[in-house]
Amino acid sequence: MLKKIPLRIRFTLVASLFLLVSCVTLTLLSNMSAVHMMEAVALLPSMKDGSTPILQLEPAQPVEEPYYQVFQQKTTVATILIVLAGSIATYFAAGYVLKPIRDLSCEVQKRNVENLGTPIELPQSADEVRQLTISFNQMMEDLQRSFLLQKEFSANAAHELRTPLAIMRAKLDVFMLSENENPETQKMIDAMSQQLERLSKLIEDLLWFSKDLPLEKKTRVMLYPLFCDVAEELSSVAKEKEIEIQIQQTNEFVLGQDRLLERVFYNLLENAVKYSPPQTQVSVTVQRERDFLRIQVIDQGEGIPEVCRSAVFEPFFRVDKSRSRAIGGNGLGLAVCKKILERHHASIAVRPNHPNGSIFEVIFPS
């Protein structure tokens, strides 16, 4: 139960409990001392035949009882006030003591993939918080180095694979030009061509994902012509499955690089077509809101389970691995989309399309 309470509140509760126990104990001891004192006062002197006075125990005077009640009330009130004042002082003292930890937590929350290499400023105090900050900066530096090595490896591997892949593609094209009526040979050539195409797309996605994709210069990108060009490129795939691509006519535009944005919507539309059943519809809508522009790519496929809707934008994630491999997906397309959109200060999310399918929603700030 206490573990779910913030550290500052926990510290205040523990200190308040300590104050309460201490004050109650002190109050009980004070009351016991007061009782003994009143009993001693009740021992009155008496004389017998002019002899030496002796002490004789007589009943306490009734007038003394109200004084004892007043004493009890005052000690109780004092106990409550001391505990209350101590709790308030402890709360603010805990806030002052824990401020370096709170500042460190805020700085840690600001760190992401883009600024891992930016170290957190060290506090002036030479305490545990300073040592924790040094350890965190070291961890972030190692993590940044690991990310850079991973990106460099992906880019170098993709570049190195391009050359032998191009040679294989050229050899296969030459072989396809030769007259060969053997159906088994033709079947093998078609299979090799399909796998080469799949490998080429994987390498291209790896290159896109490993790039930093800087925005050299933003220009107006008209959305309707962009969507039409992408739909034209995918027309043969859509025609094979008898899928209709509907694009809402619009005069809206966004600021960015058309080459990068074309890649985004090509990936989104390609996924919508590939994962939709035959004889269905894929539509693209554009809606201008007060502070942003909403673009939706809507399909009528199987949809994405709720638990996977945030993970689909992670590299190499697949909702259904066997189905993705059969269709030819490599798990990088949506990750590339997210990366490019982040460069444009835009966001992407997926929602269900009732009764069937998914809605990929892209939000551009105004």
Shape call:
elongated
Number of domains: 3
Average pLDDT metric: 79
CATH class type of the largest domain: Alpha Beta
Concise description?
The protein is an alpha+beta fold and 366 residues long.
Pick out its properties.
9 strands, alpha+beta, elongated, 3 domains, two-stranded antiparallel sheet
How is this structure best described in words?
There is one protein chain. With 366 residues, the chain is α+β, with helices and mostly antiparallel strands. The chain has three domains: 108 residues, no CATH class; 83 residues, Helix Hairpins (Orthogonal Bundle); 147 residues, Histidine kinase-like ATPase, C-terminal domain (Heat Shock Protein 90), CATH 3.30.565.10. Helix content is 58%, strand content 13%. The protein contains nine helices and nine strands. Helix 1 packs antiparallel against helix 2 and helix 7 packs antiparallel against helix 9. The two termini are 45 Å apart.
Blueprint of the fold:
Layout: H1 7-41, E1 43-46, E2 54-57, H2 64-109, H3 128-177, H4 183-210, E3 219-222, H5 223-233, H6 235-240, E4 244-247, E5 253-256, H7 258-274, E6 281-288, E7 292-298, H8 321-327, H9 333-343, E8 347-352, E9 358-365
Parallel strand pairs: 4-6
Antiparallel strand pairs: 1-2, 3-5, 6-7, 7-9, 8-9
